[in-house]
Amino acid sequence: MLIAKNDRVLRAVNCLFAGLAGLYAQTGLADTTADADGALEEIVVTSRFRAENLSEVPDSITAFTVDDIERHRIERINRVASLTPNLRFSDDQEVGISTLVIRGVRQNRGTGQPPVSFRIDGVSASNNLLTTQDLFDIESVVVLRGPQGALYGRNAIGGAVLITTRQPTTDPEYNLRLSAAEGQDFTVAASASGPVTDDTLRYRASARLQDRKGQLKNAYLDNEEVDFKEAVSFRGQLLYKPTDRLSIDVKAQFLEQEGGSGYFMPGSEGVLPLPPPDPPIFFGNPTYEIQSNRIGVSFVDSREFSAKIDYDLGWGTLTSITSYTDVDSGNDQDLDQTLIEAIDIIVIDESQTFAQELRVVSDTESTLRWVAGAHFFTQDRFRSLATTFFGAPVPPAAQDLELENYAAFGHLSYDMSDDLEVTVAFRYDVETPKDTTQGRSETFRELQPKLSLGYNFDENLLGYMTIGKGFRAGGFNNLAPGSNFEPGFDKESLISYEAGLKGSAYGGRLRGGLSLFHIDYTDQQYFLFDQTGTQANINVPRSKIFGGELELVAMPSDSLELGLGFGFTDSEITEYEDIAGVLVPASAIEGKNVPGAPVWSLNFGLQYSKPLANARQLVSRIDYEHRGETYWTLDNVDVQSSYALTNLSIALESDKWSTRLFANNVFDEEYIEWFFASRFIGLPADIAWPSRPRQIGLELSYRY
Q1: Fewer CB within a 10 Å sphere, N or C end of the chain?
Q2: Structurally, how many domains does the chain consist of?
Q3: CATH number of the domain that 441 lies in?
């Protein structure tokens, strides 16, 4: 039994419950004696489309404020993941590719879909290539764990990542940030904001430029750097408020990234089996060294335009969000990753997306609070992967895919008493992918209900229970001639059961949250590829995931702040059958752990602030992250052993300027970001994506 394997974990969780119960028992006295002026900053989130205190929302949430973003140097989602329990973000292959895993729910690559709704200012990043974009001029980041489809739509099967940018201001405001780090890594970021004519029309313009030569080298190509990157990002925004009831927010964003590609390391000696009577070819390559016979290059360019209109109806707010996104990307790399000129690929990926959402949010002050809305989404995406095998071209895997999605959603919260809140939510999706290249089409329909109970034991402790269903549509694989994978894959769904506690104590100097969850997973989608150029998703019929998170933030004194995050998952593939294209038999997979997420992770942060003369302060931080072992493959044979990362920074801050010295991965820990085993994908060798080495740098910021 799955739960029977978790005795030690459950004992640890019982201790955590006991500790939080002890916190609760002391709350009445502590609140009357603690210094309220030294309390932690109150965090307000809008995850339910209305402003609420973080501790009052019955969901497992990690939130980052402006100060957090600055002091943690959050510039991409990978940094958010390192500070968030049960969230893992791995870069690999090219500048646009990533693998995101949340509570064991994982990313689908190629033409697959992400496991979270990734939204910036309410606009969904509809292409999985956009989750790797650089973040700049950001106000807040909020991570919601557990199914969030009722409010955040497509692919929110594992949760949602909500990013809010800084908004136009009534007074002129200017910001400049410069940084330089090892690897000749230079970044310039700037923003300007203020009124255009008067307070009715305001603007904000932000830009970020990065030029990095890189730190990882190919020793067999004259030590040439492989992890180089050049990126340009720009965002322009106009906010028009002609009356107190109407606001119109128009935005344009342009992103361009170019960087290294395909610098995987062989994890085994290359062996290429040939049909009898020919003997196999042994490459004789070294392992775990970057050694591809050429330097790979990739790029992602995107253009996004959106308009958000809010109108105050008196009893609620009507919101319209319209967006159009155009994404182009490409990748040219050595796929076999060995010294031999064996397998090369060229990838072209182009998509155009239009989305429209209408919703009405009721008045915040009423006992009955509700949200109702409708969503429409359409995407046309072309993807081609052409392979060259020992210099001979192979017919490409090409796919022109059209997607349409219609959805209706609702969310209702009712205060049954001063202490008890009941929430009922739903989303109904109808999604139709059409593979026009091979003349295939299918429609997937799913109702995603959610029920939540929140009970305030007192004003400082909330308990909640949630049952919710998550859904991700199926689709069609990008097949090349000669591939054995099935032409399509089915939808996946899960039912998540969660219970949690959230509270504060000692006059707001301690804030914490604890959650436990159990997931029943049906037809989980899993990404694979093969040497023909095919990128495919398969379905794992049944699996279970059990886990939890603990987060604590404490301010023992006005100068010292501590943070702790702990997450664990234990899982089991309970049903599996032999699948065409998968070279490993079902007997080696059934009963194993769901791969991709660390079995457990721990992050700890300590920040010390020392006031100085002239309203300055010295702020020093240490952040420690420990990740337990990670299973890479369905048969659990290949495992990343546990490792730890330490980041340090020290900053001198004032009202208008700051300077920060930082060191990431201080002890230069080497580990594997992502791994593909040759027995699953048919390549000559296992391939592993290397970690980033230690990087020391200096950052300067100025605000006017």
Answers
A1: N
A2: 1
A3: 2.40.170.20
